[in-house]
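Sample intake — Glycosidase
Collected from: Asticcacaulis machinosus
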Amino acid sequence: MPYATDLLIIRPDDIDLARSPLTGLEVDTYVLGAFNPGLTRLANGNLLLMVRVAEALKPPARDGFVHSIRWDNGYNLDRWALSDVDTTDPRVFRLKNSAWDVLGLTSLSWLLPVELSSDGLNVLAFHYDKAIAPHASFQCYGTEDPRISKVGNRWLMTTCSVSPERHSTTLYSSDNGLDWQFEDMVLDHQNKDMLIFEGLIDGEYWAQTRPLGDNYFTYAPHSPWQAGPSINLATSKDSLYWKPCRRPGIRPRAGSQVNARMGGGAPPILTPDGWLSLWHGVETHGKVGIYRTYWSLLATDDPSQIIHTSNTPLIEANPVLTEPLNDQMYLHDIVFTTGIVDGGDHYIVASGEADLACRITHIPKSLFRP
């Protein structure tokens, strides 16, 4: 669906790698992508994008080896023989002789706060001095895909921390939305896309989660649901310790085109009709798939109760926006929504476009009617 206000606000060339946390590595790098940003409104009325910067080696493969960046009390380079890995995906390489799927990354991700005007249409400041980079062994391959929620007077940000130890969810907090403090690891291995609801329900924090696995158990024949990755729910008294909700959340429907994968997008925000949840669905296509954004309304007092789900994509990849960046494109047909704020008669929605750039879209509130 076309929108009157829809643009790329941050592109790879906007990032100044001279101010990157990786400057001490002393090798040539480039910005593979500046994308999948967390979004919130600051106390001064401006917006904050927390941009995931994927900084990659240039080139990662040379002299018969593929290399990756790893943090270990400083940044280091590791290497694997090209004959031992599959490098068909530009983002990762796969070890050929492993008994299970083992990946390496051709980039390391860090987070850059970028301040925008109140409507999200102009960049005001890049806060390199407040960048968030790996600092522990469970983040040694980077920290990715931030989601920001404001609960009361406190900002909470979840991120994916990547390491051989586990692919975990980590929590940061802030008193102003700009200066962030690491809290702790809050979800364990491959429980991704954790989105904290922007408000308490009966005095508790709620969150959407998305655990992954290699095995799923089938529903009954003719069930309206299909087994696979789904959006689950969890609750917490303090935002650190989380209990899974017994009731399911948003599940893939049998016969839907988005059953390859689904997961949370923007943190749910409260509307007069219920909690508005923007999520991504993936249609099988090629190696990566087609990512689109969809939406659901969840009951105000019990988010496990789904009031309405739209089967029509809310946001799709827009090749018109990325056409000027064709020489930097390495993926297509991907939009990955990661943030939403109130803009008056519309919502301001932030997305990652093609794992390359940050996209801002103004969507009329009138579209979200059950």
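Post-analysis note: The chain has a mean pLDDT of 95.
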